[in-house]
From TrEMBL:
It comes from Desulfosporosinus acidiphilus (strain DSM 22704 / JCM 16185 / SJ4). One of its GO terms (biological process) is nucleobase-containing small molecule interconversion. It is found in: Cytoplasm. Keywords: ATP-binding, Cytoplasm, Kinase, Nucleotide-binding, Transferase. Residues 7-219 form the Cytidylate kinase domain. ATP binds at residues 11-19. This is Cytidylate kinase. CDD domains: CMPK.
Length: 221
């Protein structure tokens, strides 16, 4: 049965998933779906509603009713209940809370449903933690992007600094390590490469070279 191209990109924080996924999507004229932004939006809603992040039942409840919308324009705006949360979801407090929220099975069920709905609209490049293993198990191409923990933390630290957020490198590295551990060790859809994923270690690689490699793999079919 014919369908449009689906590319799954998974990996730990700072591996370059969203940067690379956006460029690949543009080249191949596919939708780009940032699933991490959806989990971040739920964490944002919980925190701003005064719900303790450890309250699985209450967080699951707000996830059921949250209207999370990813805009497909160049700006890639992220909306939650009609509010533009694009910037707010990148804050360190959200980064620290998001993996706890993402471990809740009911939160995941709801967001996976939205993600599959996005994929049903047409060809996609989707990035996250469980895209190749769970969300799109039939994807045409599965990439597991990684890089050394040191380099990933450095990339994120520079990114935050460029956004005017001066956070000590050690703090960025520690938060990232903790989040990766939470994502890898959780019971529901943990971060792991799908058996049929191509693992790309991007340590020392430039964005354009990674994009070129993925385009090559996509063409190989
Ligand atoms: O961009 P970064 O790698 O920092 O993170 P993200 O892609 O925005 O994802 C934020 C968090 O959402 C991850 O650390 C996971 O806890 C969760 N997530 C997930 O569990 N499953 C996904 N498919 C995507 C994100
Ligand atoms: O989505 P993920 O957390 O995997 O990573 P990202 O947000 O795409 O990339 C994190 C930062 O690293 C961004 O500022 C990228 O521009 C940068 N980056 C890099 O310098 N070299 C690479 N090969 C990949 C990403």
């Amino acid at each position: 049965e014919r369908h449009e191209l689906q590319i799954a990109i998974d990996g730990p924080a700072g591996a370059g998933k969203s940067t690379v996924a956006k460029l690949v999507a543009k080249q191949l004229n596919l939708f780009y779906v940032d699933t991490g932004a959806m989990y971040r939006a739920i964490a944002y809603k919980a925190l701003t509603s005064g719900i303790p992040i450890n309250d699985e039942e209450k967080v699951s409840q707000i996830a059921q009713t949250a209207q999370v919308v990813l805009d497909h324009s160049e700006e890639r705006l992220v909306w939650c209940d009609g509010q533009n949360v694009t910037q707010a979801i990148r804050n360190p407090e959200i980064s620290r809370a998001v993996a706890t929220v993402a471990a809740y099975s009911k939160v995941r069920e709801r967001l996976v449903e939205l993600q599959r709905r996005e994929a049903a609209r047409g060809g996609v490049v989707m990035d996250g933690r469980d895209i190749g293993t769970h969300v799109l198990p039939g994807a045409d191409l599965k990439i597991f992007l990684t890089a050394s923990a040191e380099e990933r933390a450095k990339r994120r630290w520079i990114e935050l600094r460029n956004a005017g957020k001066d956070i000590p490198f050690e703090e960025v590295a520690r938060d990232m390590q903790r989040r990766d551990r939470q994502d890898t060790e959780r019971e529901v859809s943990p971060l792991e490469p799908a058996p049929d994923a191509k693992i790309l270690d991007t340590t020392g690689l430039k964005v354009e070279d990674i994009v070129a490699e993925i385009l090559r793999l996509a063409q190989e079919g």
